[in-house]
Specification:
By secondary structure, the chain is an alpha/beta fold. 42% of the residues lie in helices and 20% in strands. Bound molecules: zinc ion. The site of zinc ion (ZN) has 6 residues, from loops.
């Protein structure tokens, strides 16, 4: 057999690149015919046919007979023999859904903007519809989902199953969130705060992999944190842990939405940043501020650097309390990279009581805008692998909530069966 060296442009690397293009196209668009694959990848039908055959043989792709425009055609999908889970992320402005197998191979994903004042519960019809379509595109159905993880933009109390602080998320005050979603999807549903979900996502798949003590700092319109302590996400007694945005860093500072003055969110959150730039005659969205800063526009650079310093002060306080190994920074503002991280790092290194050499690494998240959706996937994967009997022996506050969710899921399934 001829040996191929892995040099750029060699037959081997070309073939690998072509395989990657085909898998990417199937992942992105769901089920496709080989003709459609040829059209999307620019590869010849013969090449597509060979690669599909090879990847189907390797268990990466599935081919099932189907029809396209009345003609018989092979429908090519990603194989998902291990079972599927879904991760749903409601942010204040976006809905993101990922369907993945339990080994975290994403087989379908989608996202859409949400109206600024949407009611979260009203969006559930849309989630159900989108999930149905996504599952169909990979040759599966809702019944094939082992579990669904949901990340929400509000502190969530695992004990009560409700939003921890009222008035933050329209439509879900006083409602058992998992229960409501479960009734629609008829699958077990597990819910957590988006910062916690992002922390879990980065822990399993991103910048926090292999670490036991990590803080995920989420900086966007709001500022929050997901705490990973001893390898597990820590939610606190009532789900309110990680409210980093409400660390007071300036006693007589601006009024915060929480009613206190001088919270870091009121000083360095996305809204504060935009307001500050508006008063200097520049407006628009956080995204525009980041783009302008990246191109060197001095007001925007300065605004982001000052935000980094302010967030760094709050983070340093947190580091002195928790002694984490690594800080992972995510959320929209994290896209400005070192413009934000540099000042944060300087502030943490300056203020850490144990000395600079004990300062945690501060790095950008690796999952970007998908962190919470992938964290929701991880939430689902984690919870299906925990059996109820394990949970009675588990530590309170960490796994008891998990166990009660599993039990609640089973109870509600039982109720539905009984009602039918
Ligand atoms: Zn506050």
């Amino acid at each position: 057999m001829e040996a191929h060296r892995r040099t750029p442009g060699s037959q081997t690397s070309l073939r690998e690149a072509n395989r990657g293009r085909i898998v990417d196209a199937v992942r992105k668009y769901g089920g496709l015919s080989q003709i459609e694959l040829a059209g999307l990848t620019g590869l010849s039908p013969a090449t597509v046919s060979n690669i599909v055959k090879e990847l189907a043989g390797a268990g990466v792709l599935n081919t099932t007979p189907g029809t396209r425009s009345g003609r018989r055609a092979q429908n090519v999908t990603l194989a998902h023999g291990l079972g599927l889970v879904a991760g749903v992320h409601f942010s204040t402005r976006h809905l993101r859904i990922a369907v993945s197998d339990v080994a975290y191979t994403v087989v379908a994903e989608t996202h859409m903007p949400l109206a600024k004042d949407h009611r979260a519960d009203n969006e559930l019809d849309r989630v159900t519809m989108l999930l149905d379509d996504m599952l169909e595109s990979v040759g599966a159905a809702m019944i094939d989902l082992l579990a669904v993880g949901v990340a929400i933009p509000a502190a969530f109390d695992q004990r009560t199953g409700m939003i921890a602080r009222r008035g933050v998320l329209r439509g879900w005050d006083g409602v058992e969130v998992a229960d409501v979603i479960q009734r629609r999807l008829k699958r077990p549903v597990f819910v957590d705060t988006d910062a916690n979900a992002s922390a879990l996502g980065e822990l399993r798949l991103g910048a926090a992999r292999g670490k036991d003590d990590v803080v995920f700092v989420d900086v966007g319109d709001r500022i929050g944190a997901g705490l990973v302590l001893n390898g597990r996400v820590y939610s606190g007694h009532g789900g309110m842990a990680g409210e980093l945005g409400h660390t007071v860093i300036q006693e007589d500072g601006p009024l915060c939405e929480c009613g206190n003055r001088g919270c870091v969110q009121a000083i360095a959150g996305g809204e504060a940043l935009i307001q500050r730039l508006q008063s200097s005659g520049r407006g628009a969205k956080l995204q525009d501020v980041i783009v302008r800063a990246m191109t060197g526009e001095s007001d925007s650079v300065r605004a982001i650097a000052d935000a980094g310093t302010a967030i760094g002060i709050a983070t340093a306080n947190l580091c002195n309390l928790l002694d984490p190994e690594r800080i992972v920074v995510g959320g929209e503002l994290a896209r400005s990279g070192e413009l934000l991280l540099g000042p944060m790092r300087r502030e943490v290194e300056r203020a850490i009581v144990a000395g600079t050499r004990f300062a945690p690494e501060i790095v950008q998240g690796q999952l970007g805008v998908n962190a919470s959706a992938m964290g929701a996937v991880a939430l689902a994967v984690d919870r299906i692998s925990i059996q109820p009997e394990d949970a009675t022996a588990a530590e309170p506050g960490v796994s008891a909530g998990v166990a009660s969710s599993v039990l609640a899921a089973e109870r509600s399934t039982a109720r539905e069966v009984a009602a039918e």
